[in-house]
Amino acid sequence: MKKNIFTCTLFLLISLCGYSQNPSGLEDRTYWITVLTKIADPVLENMSKGELKKNMPVETISGALNPPNTRTTHLEALGRLLVGMAPWLELGPDETEEGRLRSKYIRLMLLSIDNGFNPESPDYLNFVVTRQPLVDAAFFCQGILRAPKQIWGNFSDKTRQNVLNALQQIRKIKPIESNWLLFSAMVEATLLELTGECNMEPVNYAIMRFKDWYKGDGWYGDGVDLHMDYYNSYVIHPMLLDVLEVMQKYAKGEDEFYQLEKKRFSRYAEQQERMISPDGAYPVIGRSIAYRFGTFHVLSQAALKDLLPVSVTKAQVRCALTAVIKKHMSVKGNFDADGWLTLGFAGHQPQIAERYISTGSLYLCTAAFAALGLSTIDEFWNTSYAEWTGKKIWCGNPDVKLDKAIKP
């Protein structure tokens, strides 16, 4: 009995502290791409043929066969998938195996968007019914900003005009006083990038409110109140930073706040890295946890944009995020029999989904793959295995620095 306890304890220590062989950065990259494309395939293979609405299930907590979310879930699936895939797609085709794979998914994404924005297509998306289309048009816009050459640059003139026509409809939707303000700001920032013109009022208003809603140490309130959830990563930091970057590009002011936001963004990324336990688990708190590893949007984007703090290396972020993805993927039930994502956090858990979440919503999980936009020669992929903070500290590694809040 004592021998068995000793053996189990030793096995646990080896598992937690990484004494077994660990994959290389390029092996991690291959794994990320395998997971991303597995998630993307049902959406893009169907929508590229104009069959998304025909074949995509719409699962909600209600269990209804035709829930109200059916009106909006398809735009959710496309817009959120584009956010996650865009940085990788933007690397473009080349003669490598990965480059040929990108070429395939660029083509599928272009066909899907053409169908989604073409009023004559059976997959034409809803841009006017309910306020939800504002949310996912904003995610779509964020994806366009992340792939200006390979996606926007490869649209036909007709598709470009269809996209702009849809965004004009989206502008009519009034956001609520929350992270939604950034959706309107993102649409306007994208119109500025695509056309050279925009309405600055929603942008200025969103920036003003988020200045007021900052709570300290890298956290913004979602409205006046602080919400203990992951919306600072799902939406607030990524969209605020991207909007401010576009404003800087077009000399629209807010340089001081832009510099401040980069500092806050980095601090939040630092906190996210520390949330990841030795085995890739992390706190399951707040709304929208069905977005799974999309929780780490900021951490992955910080690596992509070289905004990681000095206390966090790219290698440890790669290894930490790989552990998170593997932790989720190790659980059965994340996909249905046809490969569509199911409601849940770890497997199929419909009861954890809010009423506003449906099958299309779940594709925000792909935001964790933003760092795939870094080339294979980048330090992120071209370095050996490294322990992240949670793994170091629980294994007694003395090389762990103390954590400090930032001011302001």
UniProtKB/TrEMBL annotation:
Transmembrane segments: none annotated. InterPro entries: DUF2264_N, UCP014753. Residues 28-388 form the DUF2264 domain. It holds the Pfam family DUF2264. This is DUF2264 domain-containing protein.
